[in-house]
Specification:
This protein is mainly α. It is built from 3 helices and 2 strands, in the order βαααβ.
Amino acid sequence: MQRWTAWGTRPEQGADAEGVGRTMVEILAVKTGRLGYEMRRAIEAARAEALFASVLQSSESPAPDQVRRAVATTLQRLRIRGCAAQVAGEFGDHPDTAVARMTWALATIRTVYPAPSTTPTHTPRPLALVG
């Protein structure tokens, strides 16, 4: 009689040094979760740089759809490297105002493009199936 966990492994299979079995799905979830976080941060930075380089002003209190449109338009016009170059130039020429503008850009991007929830919708429970 073989026993299987809910993750599709037998309890005696795939035990690591601590004796806890991990499936490839679990390993990949951990690895891609980290990669996913880094990718989200890179996308957030690119959007903030695009908003920084756009014509929108914080004093206008732009609506979310205006922000999305400005980010898309600026990225199409300057591309990621062009946005980064413009940000770098502004930080070199006007560091005092550039800090305030980037602070606004990041806060606005985080509001308009909220990060997806990282909490699981359900917690899998290990089950022993008799087979």
